[in-house]
Write a structure and sequence with these properties.
Blueprint lengths: L1 H6 L4 H9 L7 H6 L5 H9 L2 H7 L3 E5 L2 H10 L5 H9 L2 E2 L5 H4 L6 E5 L1 H4 L9 E6 L5 E6 L2 E12 L3 E6 L6 H4 L10 H7 L3 H9 L3 H8 L4 E6 L1 H12 L3 H9 L2 E2 L5 H6 L2 E3 L13 E6 L2 E5 L4 E11 L2 E6 L21 H20 L15 H29 L1
Parallel strand pairs: 1-7, 8-14
Antiparallel strand pairs: 1-2, 3-4, 4-5, 5-6, 6-7, 8-9, 10-11, 11-12, 12-13, 13-14
Helix pairs in contact: 11-12, 17-18
The structure holds 2-acetamido-2-deoxy-beta-D-glucopyranose (NAG) (6 copies).
Protein name: FAS1 domain-containing protein
Membrane topology: Lipid-anchor; GPI-anchor
Organism: Ensete ventricosum
Length: about 400
């Protein structure tokens, strides 16, 4: 109980450390605020948390619709949840830069471009792409399905080549984006983890008093959870069973940060973060998020774990699969690792193991596009690539281990 209460306090430290390194030049909310005709659109960008996602990105185009067009959209879909609306609006954010000039000079007269909806991993197939076509007579149209097209009206703001805001005549529509969405708060975390490769960790969460409940009650305010894959979790079970009841709970709570971090944020932020196990006054049970390009590692003084894939990344909830159990210094001692080993060969191979993880985990960080061009990343493909790279990683780690044994 003591723990649950402190968890709900704002974790300013973790917020500060990561956000500071993330600020970009633009602020879509204040840009649109200068154009009151887009106030409804602007309001919903904030309500759906898309504004933050737009501000964090570079090389992006926002297709804004004015208040009458937003009213028409909301009237046409009376029961639309905020989560479905988020998908629909994320279709209006192209992960490429299109100023008015470029729109009128499309090679071949049309372009297919990826959107934040595609990047969310919720778009089936290529439902998250928008087709831009430049018809003769200079009329440019945008469409996300065969059902309808919206016309280019005017350029609202251009910050080349970071952010372009363009007005289109009506909201884009697409059956996939409008489909009902399970609210993240209703996501059954343990069921999700169990289904996607973390069954053992999920089992411990459900079986440990207060653990599952604490994770669940933090989702609304933002939660980033890390579940160790089966191959890491199973050998750890004897050590887990050895912990006291308090220790077990703390270990599980150590695998989540009470702040939402997208893949993109983790890739661009570095720093010490609090976890659900942290006692705010002691600032204990913290971990260090460190990244090097596409690889994100989580460091305790005992463990260095790598993010291998994404189970869900939908503000306010993100769950990532990691290759090792996070062992806090509060419960475990660092492995004895003094040996400036006599055989230099051994060192070299040992150092090669994390390298292997590095290149594979780059592939395994779905659904957010790594760069401005925005790779399509539907969830299935993301899962598959995660599964593949985990396999590759493990076999490479095994090979490295074998090499060490041979040398020794
Ligand atoms: C575009 O973004 C980059 C990186 O944040 C920044 O250095 C540059 O000043 C921005 N360009 C403009 C025109 O704001
Ligand atoms: C963007 O601007 C809005 C309104 O001007 C402001 O409330 C908000 O804090 C700003 N966001 C950031 C990240 O600076
Ligand atoms: C995009 O739309 C244009 C005009 O309707 C069409 O000719 C083109 O084939 C479409 N492109 C794709 C990839 O759907
Ligand atoms: C989550 O799902 C599992 C089984 O799939 C179930 O036992 C558990 O009660 C569910 N938890 C919640 C909070 O609904
Ligand atoms: C469990 O704890 C005992 C006593 O502290 C220790 O000797 C033993 O090695 C531990 N077992 C594991 C698997 O950590
Ligand atoms: C992280 O935890 C350690 C050990 O409990 C503590 O000494 C340290 O001050 C913490 N660091 C931060 C930045 O909170």
């Amino acid at each position: 109980m003591r723990q649950q209460q402190q968890l709900l306090l704002p974790h300013l430290l973790s917020l500060l450390l990561l956000y500071v390194t993330l600020s970009r030049g633009h602020n879509i909310t204040s840009i649109l605020a200068q154009h009151p005709e887009f106030s409804t659109f602007n309001h919903y960008l904030t309500a759906t948390h898309l504004a933050g996602e737009i501000n964090r990105r570079l090389t992006i185009t926002v297709l804004a619709v004015d208040n009458p067009a937003m009213a028409a959209l909301l009237t046409a879909h009376p029961g639309l949840s905020l989560y479905s609306l988020k998908h629909l609006l994320s279709l209006h954010v192209l992960v490429d830069y299109f100023g008015a000039k470029k729109l009128h000079q499309l090679t071949g007269g049309s372009a297919l471009t990826s959107t934040l909806f595609q990047a969310s991993g919720f778009a089936p197939g290529t439902a998250g792409f928008v087709n831009i076509s430049d018809h003769r007579a200079g009329h440019v149209f945008f469409s996300a399905s065969f059902l309808s097209a919206s016309a280019f009206v005017k350029s609202v703001e251009e910050i080349p080549y970071n952010l372009s805001v363009i007005q289109i005549s009506s909201a884009l529509s697409s059956p996939a984006a409008e489909a009902p969405v399970t609210a993240p708060a209703q996501v059954n975390l343990t069921a999700l983890m169990a289904r996607k490769g973390c069954a053992t960790f999920a089992g411990l969460l459900s079986a440990t008093a207060d653990a599952e409940q604490t994770f669940a009650s933090n989702i609304d305010g933002g939660l980033t959870a890390f579940c160790p894959l089966e191959e890491a979790m199973k050998p750890f079970l004897p050590k887990f069973k050895n912990l006291t009841a308090d220790g077990k709970l703390s270990l599980l709570l150590y695998h989540a940060i009470p702040v939402y971090y997208s893949v993109e944020m983790l890739k661009t932020g570095n720093g010490v973060v609090n976890t659900l196990a942290t006692d705010d006054t002691a600032r204990n049970y913290n971990l260090t998020v460190q990244n090097d390009g596409n690889q994100v590692t989580l460091r305790t003084t005992v463990t260095v774990a790598t993010i291998m894939g994404t189970l869900i990344d939908e503000d306010p909830l993100a769950v990532y699969i990691i290759d090792k159990v996070l062992e806090p210094m509060e419960l475990f001692k660092p492995a004895e690792h003094p040996a400036p080993a006599p055989a230099p060969e051994t060192d070299k191979r040992a150092a090669a193991a994390p390298k292997a993880g590095e290149s594979t985990s780059a592939k395994a960080s779905p659904p957010a596009p790594a760069g401005p061009e925005g790779q399509p990343g539907d969830q299935k493909a993301a899962d598959e690539s995660a599964a593949i790279s985990i396999g590759v990683y493990l076999s490479m780690a095994a090979a490295a281990a074998a090499a060490i044994v041979v040398v020794a």
